[in-house]
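Entry 14. Structure prediction run on the chain below.
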Amino acid sequence: MRPRSLPNILLTGTPGCGKTVTSAMLAQATGLVHIELGKLVKEKGLHDGFDEEFNSYLINDDKVCDELEEAMQEGGKIVDHHGCEIFPERWFDLVVVLRANNEVLYPRLEGRGYNQKKITENIECEIMDVVKMEAYDSYDAAIIVELRSETAEDMEENVQRIETWIENWKEDNAASSDNDE
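Output returned:
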C-alpha cells in the first residue's frame, strides 16, 4: 500500500454506542470522509440478503472489501461499523472501540425499535467485550484505543482526542516522508 497523507480510522463498537454520531462529528471537524458501512452495504447491494430475525443485511465481506480498497489506499477515511474483523489490517492507522454502559445502551437500542432478541444479543456482546476482543484479534494493539461514549460530552471529548491524534499522525508521517526523500 502506498504512503498516505491522511490516516484511516475505524470507529467500531456495539450497536448504539455512538459510532455514527461520533464519526459524523469527527468528519465535520477534520475534513476526513465518513463511510457509514451499513448505509454503503444497503445502497450498493454489498450483501447476500436480509436477515428478518435480526432485521439486518447479511454483509458480503468480499464485496465490501472490493468496494472500499481504492478509497482506503487514498487515506483520509473514517469507517463506522459494529464489527472489525472483515477489514484488512493494512487499511487502518487507528482503531477506536467505543463503549457504553448497558444502562445507557439498552434504551438507545429500544429507541431504535430493535426486537428483544436483537437487544439482548447486543447487550451481551457489550458485556462480553466481543467487539473489543475482535479488535485485538484483528489489529496491532498499538493502534487500538477504547473510549467511553455515553454522553454528548463524551462524544465531543472523543472527537477532540482523535483530532489531536490525527494532527500527531500528520506530523509524524510528514517527518518520515521528508526523511524518505
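The CA atoms of residues 7 and 169 lie 7 Å apart.
Filed with the rest of this week's runs.
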